């Protein structure tokens, strides 16, 4: 039940949109437990989502948000 860092990133993005299956979430959790890089990624992702929900950023388009994420997570 091993997934790569790239797969973990894909699932964590899905999770954000509530599209990840139970099995995927489980695999993601398992991966995050073992991988410091990805648990950092998810923390950043959560911070970013919180940031987006603030009023100051509500004028950003979905495209601009995606662009910001890409920049932040290109490791
Ligand atoms: Zn990883």
Gist of the model:
This protein is mainly α and 75 residues long. 72% of the residues lie in helices and 0% in strands. α1 crosses α2, α2 packs across α3 and α3 runs antiparallel to α4.
Plain-language structure description:
With 75 residues, the protein is an all-alpha fold. The protein has one domain. It has 4 helices and no strands. The model has no long low-confidence stretch (mean pLDDT 79). Bound molecules: zinc ion. The site of zinc ion has 6 residues, from helix 1 and helix 3.
What structural category do the secondary elements indicate? Answer: mainly alpha
Task: Give the SSE string.
Answer: HHHH
Q: Mind describing the biggest β-sheet?
A: none
The tally of beta strands, per DSSP, is 0
Give the termini separation.
24 Å
What descriptive keywords fit this protein?
75 residues, mainly alpha, 4 helices, 0% strand, globular
Ordered list of secondary-structure elements with their pairings:
Blueprint: H1 5-16, H2 22-34, H3 36-52, H4 62-73
Helix pairs in contact: 1-2, 1-3, 2-3, 3-4
The structure holds zinc ion.
């Amino acid at each position: 039940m091993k997934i790569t860092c790239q797969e973990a990133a894909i699932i964590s993005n899905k999770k954000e949109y509530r599209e990840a299956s139970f099995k995927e979430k489980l695999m993601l959790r398992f991966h995050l437990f073992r991988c410091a890089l990805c648990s950092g990624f998810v923390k950043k992702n959560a911070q970013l989502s919180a940031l987006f929900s603030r009023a100051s950023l509500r004028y950003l388009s979905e495209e601009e948000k995606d662009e910001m994420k890409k920049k932040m997570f290109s490791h």
